[in-house]
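I am still getting used to backbone structure tokens and would like to learn alongside you. Please make up or recall a protein chain and show it to me in full. Would you write everything just below, so we can both look at the same thing?
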Amino acid sequence: MNKNIKKKDLEFIWHPFTKHNAFYDPIVISSAKDEKIFDQEGKQYIDLISSWWVNTHGHCKKKIIDAVTKQMKLFEQVLFTDFTHEPATSLAEKLVSILPNNLKRVFYSDNGSTAVEISMKVALQYWYNKGQKKKKFVAMKGNYHGDTFGAMSVGSTSGFYEPFRDFFIDSTFISFPSIWRGKNDFEKEENFALKEVDEVLDKSKDEIAAVIFEPLVQGASGMNICRKEFFEKVVSKFKKAGVLVIFDEVMTGFGRTGKMFACDYLNEKPDIICLAKSLTGGYIPLAATVFSEEIHSAFVDNDISKAFLHGHSYAANPLACAAALASIKIFEEENTFKQINKIISIHEFFLKKISEKLNVSKIRSLGTIAAFDLNNFNQDYGSDTGNKLKKTFLDNGLLLRPLGKTIYLMPPFCISESCLEDSYSKIIKILE
């Protein structure tokens, strides 16, 4: 094993979302299997966050590896302008078959931020092509949609966006009324948020290009959850006002909420949906932004200026499409939702135990996502105290990344019952 990997990393690499200082000490990973990751010293870590929410079926899943290998022997990459190929068309067909019926047109890219950026550009140009210059967006406070400029514009409540704020698209933010176990006074907050929606629509309905949501769960701001009944009302108000509705399901898509997509909980459906992260099972970068036929039709014209002139070199990469198809097939072939329901049951049992044993609050869960807040722990994301806690988890073989005072779990669906139960027991012991 190459012992110089860490040295080379520290000399040459700039990591994302990382405070590079004297205390930065990256762990060198050498292999992974199922829910387990192994470093070069042989130490085992249980991947309780699906490697940043991307890994659905576990590491080194043979069915996905075989699909990618098979495609690699045919061709690995081809430009996606004048050409097409079977992996891309089959995946698009499959996505359309499992998404809401109104979503028919798949635009490929390669990451979540870009999927969101595409949704926003299309929304702006849709109205432009129709002769209406609508330039505003609406989002929810606490949203995170990515790190490109458009995505930051609709997630601008994040503090680390400050250096870029002068360059943002005009966006208005409405409240996200979070719920958790034992919270009974949610109606007041929900009614306030609904009033905010009405005020925004009354003031600038004709100027709004689109509203963008993280449906039901806000990820990066702390796994905040809202009631589907409230969300239904909000989406309905915007749709009745003729505002395009974008769902950012980069995090919530592909089983995370207990259904294939968060929008499956709702009667009201988006006009646009953004997918990435778990789209390929976590194996190869790929994103898809899927649109209604009505939106796509506004771009069908002999005039080149009406076309959506946007693209990426690796759009619809055949290897990534093959991985995505294999990942979706696993849901069908291995009864993945049965395993998801087991994870939900274990979450339920141990969250109750945590509420009894630890000084915590705001216990919440949806599907395979479980979270709680540490009381008397007011440290922001990236703080030294938070990093020490993260290291303690790692020292105990648990891959967890606290979001400020929020501890959350989002394991790969393959995790064994005993492994998840043991992980919870370790978490309780560490936090006692």
Q: What stands out?
A: DSSP finds 13 helices and 16 strands in the chain. The chain has a mean pLDDT of 95. The chain has two domains: 5-57+335-431, 66-332.
